[in-house]
Design a protein that fits this description.
four-stranded mixed sheet; 4 strands; 5% strand; mainly alpha; 290 residues; transmembrane
Length: 290
């Protein structure tokens, strides 16, 4: 029965839960803990999914409460580990393909920005300005990170709003939000299509943007950041980069309510710990023979 519970945990955390969490819109007020909850759900689903086959083989070979001797059940052991091995290889290949594609696209775009863009007097050397009629701002993560603005952004935004946008983009770069999004992208694409939740990936992207907004508000006002979001709302950015104007309407609503929520933070973090502990506890119980 415990092995079945492990399988059910894997399916539940991989399928209905990522479809349910985006509906809990109050979690957007605590983006950091909410992202930890999303990560806990993904990791717990992965752990349970990888452990299911070996645990099923262990349970089938067990006689009594003792752990079976591996040499007495070579065939069973090979079957269980083979299933897990296939899943691990699929995950690693997807991580390699996703990471390679993203880094290649960012490297090419960074080289293009360095070739066509210009620096800004009084700004850091990693800021580049491109000629374009639409106000746009985004960052290109990586070793040689860039913050990219269009010249219409400079002409459209007052200084305080421009500073807020730059703080937002630098938050992405400083805290490597691209790696967080890459992790979820890999997990999303590694599961079968019928299990995927496109809404889940969109929600994670929103939480990352809101988290960068929170960091920007340490040095900028909600009014200046909100004004910048309105101006940049129509801008687009390359898929491998992270833009300041994305999901502007929802972020504007969240900027209007900056109350602290210590209870929600504590509950969300507790939920993350419990979700991650669930498969680990079940696995330990199965191995112990309970």
């Amino acid at each position: 029965m415990l092995v079945i519970a492990v399988v059910l945990v894997a399916i539940t955390l991989a399928w209905p839960v990522p479809r349910l969490l985006p509906r809990l819109t109050f979690l957007r007020h605590v983006p950091g803990p909410a992202l930890l909850l999303w990560q806990a759900v993904s990791l717990a689903a992965l752990i349970a999914g990888l452990a299911a086959a070996p645990l099923a083989m262990l349970d089938a070979a067990r006689t009594g409460d003792d752990v079976p001797t591996p040499t007495d059940h070579v065939g069973t052991l090979v079957i269980g580990l083979s299933v897990t091995g296939v899943l691990v290889v699929r995950l690693l290949l997807q991580a390699h393909h996703t990471g390679t594609a993203l880094r290649h696209a960012r490297r090419e775009h960074r080289d293009l920005v360095d070739l066509l863009g210009e620096g800004v007097a009084g700004r850091a050397r990693d800021v580049r300005v491109l000629p374009h009629p639409t106000p746009t701002a985004y960052c290109v993560p990586g070793r040689r990170a860039r913050v990219v603005l269009t010249d219409s952004t400079l002409s459209s935004l007052p200084q305080l709003e421009l500073d807020a946008v730059l703080a937002h983009e630098r938050a992405h770069l400083r805290f490597r939000h691209d790696l967080v999004l890459e992790f979820f992208t890999v997990m999303h694409s590694a599961v079968p299509p019928w299990l995927r939740s496109p809404g889940g990936l969109t929600e994670v992207s929103l939480l990352i943007e809101v988290l960068a907004d929170h960091v920007a508000l340490r040095t900028a006002t909600a009014k200046s950041l909100g004004g910048a979001l309105v101006t940049l709302a129509g801008g687009a950015h390359p898929s491998a980069t992270m833009g300041a104007g994305g999901l502007a309407l929802v972020r504007l609503r969240l900027l209007g309510d900056r109350r602290r929520r210590p209870l929600l933070t504590a509950l969300t973090l507790t939920a993350a710990v419990l979700v991650l502990a669930l498969p680990l506890t079940l696995i330990a119980l199965v191995i112990a023979g309970h």
